[in-house]
Design goal:
With about 80 residues, the protein is α+β, with helices and mostly antiparallel strands. The chain contains one helix and four strands, in the order βββαβ.
């Protein structure tokens, strides 16, 4: 199934931002064909950030990523 994929989105959820790479397989390996760096509204581990607010900040960043990119049938990992 992996060979049928056009590309893969690799997500890293950090304390200050959502970092995303779009990778594609080539004949000789893997190529980075796109990237995103979406800042959260606040640092997730900052003082006074409660779990519910943290979850909402993450959700907002993920929604922004999905709005800005056509994921199509690409895998997201």
């Amino acid at each position: 199934m992996a060979s049928a994929l056009h590309s893969v989105w690799a997500i890293d959820l950090g304390n200050s931002c959502l970092k995303v790479l779009r990778l594609s397989r080539t004949e000789t390996g893997v190529e980075v064909i796109g990237f995103e760096n979406i800042q959260h509204g606040k640092i997730l581990t900052g003082g006074g950030v409660k779990p519910a607010e943290r979850d909402e900040l993450i959700a907002l960043s993920l929604r922004q990523f999905v709005r800005q990119n056509d994921l199509g049938t690409d895998a997201v990992v």
